[in-house]
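Lab notebook: predicted structure, single chain.

Context: the supervisor wants predicted structures on file for every construct in the current expression panel, including those that have not yet been purified. This is the next one on the list. No modifications to the sequence; it matches the entry in the shared construct table.
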Amino acid sequence: MRTERAGQSALLFLDVAEILTRENVDYLIIGAFALSVHGSVRASSDVDALLYVSYSRLARISKIFEGAGFEVTIRRGDDDDPILSMLVLSDSYGNRVELLGGLRGLDPMSFSRAVEVPFYGANLRVAGREDFIAMKCFAGSPQDLADAKDAFEGAQGPVDVDLLRAVTRRFGRAAADRLEEIL
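Prediction complete. Output recorded below exactly as produced.
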């Protein structure tokens, strides 16, 4: 692992991304790390990424991470949980990566709209702006909505508002209403 102390979750994610790529598992970085790509820097102690995999595939991947020396926790979401499953990876320094194993309402085409961002010699896949804002509207906490607003207002170049509305509607009426408040 690349990490040498606490506060290096982004470096830990490089190790995670390497394994995901080797295992042909597509991912999207979401959360504060993605926000830094879309307009605003916010501190966070972990890196969040979204996968589009079944629970059984996530369980198999968890064994690979365990074998590579990661501390692993896996859980399956309840029937009404918007997060289908989650794999939490950490190291001995407390650096942490959370892999969401699916999100109810997610447009599967979100993965084709990823933005590739160079980071320490690797190209990392970050959720595209419209998908990022939609996910934040779906999550709905005050911090998530502030992140969505920052990403919208800090956009470098035009935002595809039609696409933004369409992907947000997939998450339900509440998410769509939150988006309209931001717009």
